[in-house]
Amino acid sequence: RTLTELYSNAGIPASYREMNGNGVHAYKFVNDKDEVHYVKFHWKSLQGTRNFTPKDVARAQGADYSHMTQDLVSHISKGDFPKWDLYVQVLKPQELGNFEFDPLDATKVWPDVALRKVGQMVLNRNPANVFQETEQVAMAPSNLIPGIEPSEDRLLQGRLFSYADTQMYRLGANAL
Fold it and tell me: Which of 71, 76, 123, 162: CA 20 to 30 A from 19?
């Protein structure tokens, strides 16, 4: 999905604040009755979306290769806190067979599956210690909270181990 958007007429995002985010993998929500529902996560920017043309990209990145980070940091510093609404798409296990493709394939989107708003993220401060709060973040798909489990997506299954193993090596056992 990301490559499809990148090579589409949408262009390149002008800023992190003005871009949507889509989860690559499907996960499972499991309730206290062990009922399973498959989910995909979607973040929708409340700032709207804005993209650069190829000429805009050359100008912006030629002047500052980290313009997207600088834009985000400066807006947060000014108190202009960016927000994204979190939506999920939900499928029951028996609905997985309703598609002409494997809906757990990371390269597929779920057409005609409703988006349900479940929350909002607000970035209301910049890191006080960039190394500790940013460079040492371990964003591994195996870092899950109770009630969310990995799906049977084969790419996700491989990433569960490899990301955690790489981060253990990069950060050390005491940092995780």
Answer: 162
